[in-house]
Write the structure tokens for this entry.
Amino acid sequence: MPQAKRRPPRVGDSPAVRRTLIGFVLTVGALLILAPLIVIFAQAASLGLDGFARTISHPDTRHAILLTVLTALIAVPINTAFGIAAAWAITKFDFWGRRFLLVVIEIPFSISPIVAGVAYLFVYGLQGLFGPLLEAWDVKILFALPGIVLASMFVTAPFVVRELVPLMQAQGRDLEEAATSLGASGWRTFFSVTLPNIRWALLYGVVLCNARVMGEFGAVSVVSGNIRGQTNTLPLHIELLYHDYQTAGAFAAASILTVLALVTIVAKVLLERQGAGRVHRPALAAPTGKSA
Amino acid sequence: MKIRLDNVVKTFDTFRAVHGVSLDIESGELLALLGPSGSGKTTILRMVAGLEFADGGHIYFGDQDATDIPVRDRGVGFVFQHYALFPHMTVAENISFGMKVSKVRRSPAEMSARVADLLRLVRLEGLGERFPTQISGGQRQRVALARALAVDPKVLLLDEPFGALDANVRRDLRRWLREIHGELGITTIFVTHDQEEALDLADRVVILNEGKIIQQGTPEEVCRNPSSAFVMKFLGDTNRLSGSVKSGVASIGGVTLDADGCPDGAAEVYARPSDLEWSRESGIPASVLRVIDRPDGRRLVARTAGGETVELDVPPETVVRAGDEGFLRIVRMKVFAA
């Protein structure tokens, strides 16, 4: 009798619950996430290789891609440096306002990006806080690259910090203290002890930060002014093409952005394999690496 | 290197961790700082290392005032409780780290020769290419020691060196550390909360409680002449019996014993399980509650007529069962005023 051989189900492991849950998740995942992605690539492919190349090589599109990459090249390194500095300060020093700082750094996670954009408008706009001063000095922040970079940095400020803080908290100060007691300088300690031990989490944070900078729409849309061929980043350009009824072009540009995102995801998965994003990682060094 | 602590004070926020501790450590001595958690022993060790700065007082290395010398320049070897080995470096790289960052330039050949020497010293030959995650806890502790010794420290400081290891490994490492200390003759201070470890290993034991030194001396001195009830209790299993003293004679449960030099009045009598004997004839009346058999003897849990529970060790062949009535005889004891 098969019934006699069957082991009792574990808690929450009845076949009905199992099948329903898995089925539900797979269906929703396919409809919600997978289908739109497939549509983007299908639409882009319908242009044919020729049409695709033509759309992409349009000066405005090329400029948008360049601007997006340039923004990422500026914003990501600055935010990485800020993230390391902030995580270091929060985990290795005791100072008044440490918890407050952590909360402040997380605000961009919960605030709508468009609010950030509008706030920048109030601070750096012509009628804004520093508006007259900036005009007098002839510094252009809004509707130009600096504004786009600033808005992108605001939105992505928490990414690196959030990855590093739990890890560095778990690691404590022992390793740095050991290195210093052995005679290492502060820089030496940072580069040969601290950095190698946070590298995967750091890379993971940088990858997420980069993905968000490239894809940011709301905040950038407010501060860039949407000037075609000048201050349009790739996400803004896609919207513009779409509103111009250039659906195929919009899909082609969108596919470019999606490829950038997929590259990011692949990088993220590879990094996770290396143990980033987990506090209790088994080993930084591959166990089968060198052995005696 | 002779080390002297002069009235050292350390306060964390509002908590006084160390209250004016003065201590002399002779050159080449192996000293244990022993105390319960929160007694300030680790804080003292970290102040000697320079990982923590004293709020008051001075620390001298020889004749030099080392109080304000940063850890980097103090020339101490520090072994952390959880080893703090660099996980991304091999054992050999860990050991040579101090030499690599040193202001004294050494050739790679010199360094690898030193690493080989140290690996031999800590008996880890052939494991130089392993990573810390690929060796056992006891081996990691030995690597941590080799790493600390590589920079020729003036003093070796160990924070709960065997705390995270199981009992057998711990016993082996203790004997081994004693041997290394004998071989190198380096002034060594270690912190422990385990009295057995301190007594086994150290030339001299400093017992701390609540940031103050309670007693210091050789293991023999602190074991035979505990200065207070705290030391008596902290060093091992102890029975406490209440009694009273009158003109140098203590009476406990109807038995009188010699207690020279004790002030008159209520007193607490402390005796270790091996300081008591089980008797059928005379002594403090008691009944046996439980008999516990161990490989090295037999322990009785008994209750005196006064309602106090005591434990005593008897020879394994003693014929006794739970419920038996008999008498306790005190062979040795310490009397402290209550």
Notes: The CA atoms of residues 110 and 248 of chain A lie 34 Å apart.
